[in-house]
Design brief:
mainly beta, six-stranded antiparallel β-sheet, three-stranded antiparallel β-sheet, 9 strands, 40% strand, elongated
Length: 128
């Protein structure tokens, strides 16, 4: 049910569908910010389930839902650029069921929307 966007490798957290990410200066353990972030999702069947929420510190800059895959494609993309805000961290939800539960995907007769991730895109992280 999953299609890679680039190459044969994809990403997912198998035990949970919700995870947090933050940014660092490349090659250093120094907190950083970005102006925008996007990712490719594979096999999004249900609307308003998969999302990226953006934060500046503890302030939410908004929660954006991933569009459902279009007919003939297993891929969806969500990316947001902030012109006047900096992003310090993100919260991502991919689907509504973890892969390690043995559930079938909704498109295969199951009850959960199982989703994996592919490419992540963001601008050069800069020091906070």
């Amino acid at each position: 049910a999953f299609s890679p966007f680039s190459g044969a490798n994809s990403f997912t957290n198998t035990s949970t569908v919700l995870w947090d990410g933050s940014f660092e200066i490349p090659g250093q353990d120094v907190p950083a910010t970005v102006s925008g972030f996007g990712m490719v999702f594979s096999d999004v069947d249900l609307p308003n389930t998969s999302f990226i929420e953006f934060f500046n510190g503890n302030e939410s800059l908004g929660k954006f839902f991933v569009p459902v895959q279009k007919a003939g494609s297993k891929l969806s993309f969500l990316g947001v650029y902030f012109k006047k805000q900096r992003v310090t961290r993100i919260k991502v939800q991919h689907g509504n069921g973890p892969l390690d539960q043995g559930e079938k995907d909704i498109s295969d007769g199951g009850t959960k929307d199982l989703v994996i991730l592919d490419d992540f895109l963001y601008d050069e992280p800069v020091k906070k």
